[in-house]
């Protein structure tokens, strides 16, 4: 499944109308019909009081169809038109004419009727938002702003269903300038919109469901549209490495985790345990010698490589001791708990020069140590995977965090292409970018994952799957999905507050047994 933007949807609609010969009025009829099906599924009430708020564009046209079809089913919806009927054009005008020719009732919003609307909304069971669609650009103006603000007073109290996208949310960026509907559920057409997963979008869409309106999915390939893909359970399941029934520990790869410091003892332990519990045959853990006793007590399953340290962090000579062993590893993960230390940049440079071109996953403060020597990425012959959160990404690019957050998709795509690496940009909805420019959005995630150690687990999962033979892209898809879903699942059991790193690992194990 793809995530579409305004231009992509316009091109798909245009192709369907002009090349396939399916009129726009039919697409609008289909959209309204599918929306009605979902509206009725959303309530156990056999005769709900429904208010349809319709704007003057195509989104409003969907609203006219919805109101008419609800009447046909024996309900008594109340249709409010939030635009001058004389200025409504095109397919929306045709459906408004059909509605009015039926003699069905409607109310045109006027300034003196806003109090009446408020009273009607207070008595409604379901509020349908068909005010503004995917073409919104800039802040919502009056009187629509007042209507949206009024509807939002019932957010969380009444069922608010948005048609295609919550009014006021950008379909491309998820940005909200001013007011936007806070929907309980969004019924979207053909594909979910990119804005569902970016910026403020996730705070407004509620649950979402994409429904078919007779725009064939094959159009995407025919038109050569480049759209992000959503990471679904089906996609993630197909990306998990297949385990031969008669395999042994050598079959399932050997991952090396390099990390830890006096300040961050737990981070490399979380990574190593995540790698082991996700199927790696062997996991070696290279740590500063000073934390060896603690790590040995907490992580007897791993092969431990205590290395020279200075003041609780790796010494420059640590890489020299590690060099003779590096060719044994199928994947190297570096960064969990490594901290920022004097000569750390030289240490990173030394590590790159001694690796044997196996895949490397770089996370946490290893990203900080890399920030001033990005040429290391271009000169490295092996696969490189970076997993920054927005703050780390801002340091890699030397731009404000806000700029990263507001342009996640394009920043991820450009960075991956420019440096020929794989990138997982963490966040509420993580983004994966390949060197080819291919993008994936993880629609899962939970605030329960916002805790120290969570990212270290993700690093371990990625390193594990790569070591087991998964392609870098498959490793990122499966690891990010399992990590996010584990957070969601464990939060249901342990609350938003109580999920700890080892709970996430336990959640991953359960999912690997289920999907």
Regions with little confidence, pLDDT below 50 for 5+ residues: none
Briefly note the CATH topology name of the largest domain: UDP-N-acetylmuramoyl-L-alanine:D-glutamate ligase
What fraction, in percent, of the residue positions are helical?
A: 40-55%
CATH superfamily of the largest domain: Ribokinase
**Based on DSSP secondary structure assignment, what is the total number of beta strands?**
19
Neighbour order of strands in the largest sheet: 8-19-18-17-16-15-14-9-10-11
Number of helices: 20
User: If you compute it from the alpha carbons, what radius of gyration comes out, rounded to the nearest whole angstrom?
Assistant: 27 Å
Please identify the structural class as seen in this structure.
alpha/beta
- Overall 3D geometry? elongated
State the end-to-end distance. Answer: 18 Å
Query: What is the class of the largest domain in the CATH system?
Result: Alpha Beta
Going by CATH, the architecture of the largest domain would be: 3-Layer(aba) Sandwich
On the 0 to 100 scale, the average pLDDT is 97
Characterise this structure:
Residues 232-515 form the YjeF C-terminal domain. In the C-terminal section; belongs to the NnrD/CARKD family. Belongs to the NnrD/CARKD family. Its EC number is 4.2.1.136, 5.1.99.6. This protein has 515 residues and is α/β, with parallel strands linked by helices. It folds into two domains: 6-227, Rossmann fold; 254-514, Ribokinase (UDP-N-acetylmuramoyl-L-alanine:D-glutamate ligase, 3-Layer(aba) Sandwich). It contains 20 helices and 19 strands. The protein has helices at residues 6-18, 24-41, 58-72, 90-101, 114-123, 144-152, 219-223, 233-239, 266-277, 292-298, 318-322, 344-354, 365-370, 375-379, 390-397, 401-406, 408-419, 454-467, 472-494, 501-514; strands at 50-54, 78-81, 107-108, 126-130, 159-163, 185-189, 207-211, 229-230, 254-258, 282-288, 303-307, 309-310, 313-314, 331-334, 360-362, 384-386, 422-425, 431-433, 439-441. The strands form three sheets. It has a ten-stranded mixed beta sheet, sandwiched between helices. A seven-stranded parallel beta sheet has the order 3-2-1-4-5-6-7, with helices on one face. Strands 12-13 form a two-stranded antiparallel sheet. The protein is elongated, with a radius of gyration of 27 Å.
